[in-house]
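Notes on consecutive records. When two proteins share a document, each keeps its own sequence and its own token line. Never mix them. Below: protein one.
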Amino acid sequence: MSGSLPTDADADADADGDRDRGVPPPAGVDGDRAQADRDTRADGGAQARGGAQARGGARHLSLILLLCCTAQFMVILDVSIVNIALPAIRADLGFSVTGLQWVVNAYAIVFAGFLLLGGRAADLIGQRTTFVAGMVLFALASLAGGLAPSRGLLIGARAVQGLGGAIIAPASLSIITTTFTEGAARNRAVGMWGAMGGAGGAAGSLLGGIITQGLTWRWVLLINLPIGIAAALAASVLVAEHRRPAGEGPRSFDFAGALTVTGGLSVLAYGVVGGDTHGWTSSTTLLTLALGLGLIALFFLIESRLASAPLVPMRIFASVRLRAANAVVLMLGASAFAMWYFVSLYLQEVLRLTPLGAGLAFLPMALTIVVCANLAGTLTGRFGPGPVLGCGMTLIAAGLLLYARIAVDGGYGSDVILPGLLVSSGIGFSFVPATIAAVTGVPSHEAGLASGLVNTSRQMGGALGLAILASLATAHTDQLVSSRSLPLPPIVALTDGFHRAFAVAAGFAMIGALVAFVFLPGLRSRRGLRTAQAAADVSPEPARAVE
């Protein structure tokens, strides 16, 4: 890796230096001296821009890439690593089944709500400053969560972790795009950064099992502290500060937009969870849901009428494909989160696997996602995003329907592995074509916004879907346990509650498949698809501020 980076970077820097200055080779000087003169001018220009290539060479570039990939790996890892620890967290802190989902949702909701704001902060404040601040915040929140003596403090720490992750993810990609010269070197670096998402998800379950069983669930969070502090210190030394020049692009952060969408999602999720406790027709539940919907409506008002530089300009939704792609990804998140959450509980609370055993049980699923995601780009180029995405969502629905038949006395081979592989294949085949469909036909300067919305929709769908499914499962379990005619044993009722959640999640996936088949393109417009695929490959995550 390191041997090929400086060649591309230096060559591009030379050419850029000559073009920017319009200086021809000096007359009467031999070729070697002219080349040396061009190199000197190019290096001086790169230093003036604060680029890392002019100061560091291959080793410096490799260290920056390693830093950014480690940061992305840690952020994505923390989404999945807690799933295996959920039963231990529940037993230690006394969570209910519905309350337990907030350990996942507190992170996911805040991460989704502030993701685009994090990208703008990197542009306006400076990518190094933003990255270091996000890392320190993430590390301290991990410390607070690992030491949390109560449910409320743990949930609060997870929310602050989500905010730190929303700052780190776009800042790390911004560092890559300004450090590596546009072209092959940058594409390779961004590709490696994007691959960390799959690697983090794949490693999360296994590491969660190893840490929870070998130490305690608290070390699932505490392990982030030394990594985060080390990364912050390394960034202070390695990364050059870079911020958007005055007069280029929006200068407003649009805090109001980020706060209203995050608050609206949180209140909606709380209202859904509270419906099981207070009753769906109670004034408390109805007022909570109305407040959540009101905050979401206020977000759209701010973005369309009030914000001078909105995070999400409403014009982007003029694209039917973008609207359809985000609708499908919303259903993808709502259905796919169910597998990791409920299967983890089933493996440990019903089948009585150890945390390490549960982590190993998820490993084939995680690897399947990585393999299928790599195949999805090729299939999308051949058949179009609609058919590939629709088939992926259909696979998810089929797997979840099989999960809706898991048995109390079942086993890993008979009840878990086949539906898990189907759902994992569907996840792998779904997200890449959804991103490609979202950026098809979108102006190039808004491709980052379009792909960023897809990532945000996935997290939001997952958070709301999990709140709905956890509430349905708990309500059904409680009803069966407290039945006056024929009360069921708790473990049987718990499994039946999982059946209800998986069946509804399959319905979410079927809706997504239908939208994909009807509203997204197939074989038509190959040139547009190839252009969109290239844009999706270069921007796998919402990294930059909205232009």
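Protein two starts on the next line and is unrelated to protein one.
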Amino acid sequence: MGREIELTVTVEEVIYRSADQRFAVLRASVEGAPQVITLVGALGSVAPGDPISVHGRLERHATFGEQIVVSSFTPVTPQTREGIRRYLGSGRVPGVGPAIADRIVEKFGERTLEMITTQSSRLREVSGIGARRATAIADAVRAHAADAQVFSFLHGLGIGNALSQRIVNRYKADTVRVVREEPYRVAEEVRGVGFLTADRIGRQLGYTLDDPRRAAGAVLHLLGRGADEGNVYLPRDLLVEQAQALEVPHERASEALDVLHARGMLIIDGDAVYAPPLYSAEVSAARKLQALAEHPNTLPPAIPEALLEGLAPAQRDAVRASFVHRLYVLTGGPGTGKTTTVRALVAAQRAQHKRVLLCAPTGRAAKRLSEATGAEAATIHRALEYNPKTGAFQRNADLPLDADVVLVDEASMLDLVLGERLLSALSKTASLVLVGDVDQLPPIGAGPLLRELISSNACPVIRLTVIFRQAQRSAIVRAVSFHSPTSVIGADTRTSGCSDCSKRSKCAAASAGKLGSSAFSKRAEESVRSPRRAEVLRTVPAWNAATSSRSWDVAPVTFERSPPMIPARATGVAPSQISRSLGSSARV
């Protein structure tokens, strides 16, 4: 372990800079010292000619020799004639090269930078500098001086270089004011600044435990943490209780909820508290799923018997269902023939000249799907043409997917936000088939879409129960299937026959009303609270599994509650009347 060292240097050369512009290896000189030193660390924003104050450890590398591993640095203003000359001529100041830098320093000496920032018009006394160039030079020098002050302020609060740079990039010239007056806002708007960091800053700046701004920051932090744990929303009482664990008084936490709701920074629906992006995604997904479930296809084609050869009755029903329903789920435990069914389904759809898009939440799942079907498959992000630079999907309602049928395999990993994006990109006539086992991997984001859709009974669910793999000889497979909760979650176990199915199977009826929009909380079965359901009377076509027809009755629509992970802690989402139909089932 090397010794701690702090000194002011001038950067001479950038030896290496990482692609993400964060890490760098620099050569720097110390005024009065004959040799250069090597600096390594989060120095990506530093350029040759920059004077900086560095703090770090002096270590000896086995290959590269002695170097300073920088833990923090602060831009500084050079004080000597040579330092000012090198700073001005480094290329950081527009319109100034080494020759002009020499003339400026020769004219104004050690007061050069002071004169530039306070009497910039005098720069025109130097040969080669006009009014426009003088203004540009003054602006650049002032900006550098301001940066030095800002970084010094942030470092004084114990904030490291990388985090300081992100804060400065976000707030620019307003950085000091925002951090000083609204440190808890920084926690919600800058990646890497959590509530604990903001609270440490706030306490250093004199914020008390019962400060309303601290209470608001704690509530937003808890809501974000809940989403990271898989919850789409949190009950109001639970939020207030958790806030007290952060030393926020009960009254302050309750007041903060109401204030944040009024400001559009969270949504309160009954006793449920949402982050706006999750609330918006939940309502949108609920509407789109309901629209698909309510409008089945008409006049399904006859499927050649050759395409159904070798399939069990339930598998045949699954293939036929893809022509009848615009939304349905194919589920079953391991070894029950989901892959075989998907292969036949794709072949049958293509035999009818339908455009089939195969996708899955992960690259590995997409590759397995492609190998199983012999057709191209992609990740959902790739299918939706995700742009990592903008964070947006190119495929949406304005540019829908070129597919008549979209089949998602391993749908247990599909979370609410991504599911809503996929639903938004379906064409007006497209069908959606979700294939998966809810007892497999859950989504990383909040809201297990497949589980909630199955438990809602909002669409047909074909459950494969016959074990084919290993000819039923595997005790493990039998045990998994026997104990699988999917045999009871949301299942309609009555034996029914659809007019479009020649065989009879256990198929969950899409009984009008329970569109699983809300209990999207991950692992909802672990909830210690009983689900609350708010019912709204709407005219919904109730599906009659026995007659394969719809009766337009007034039926209660029930939405189970839950949102996805908070994307970018955005604020402001227009409330929707559908929110009144959202129920609850949060995991606590």
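For the record: The chain is about 35% helix and 20% strand.
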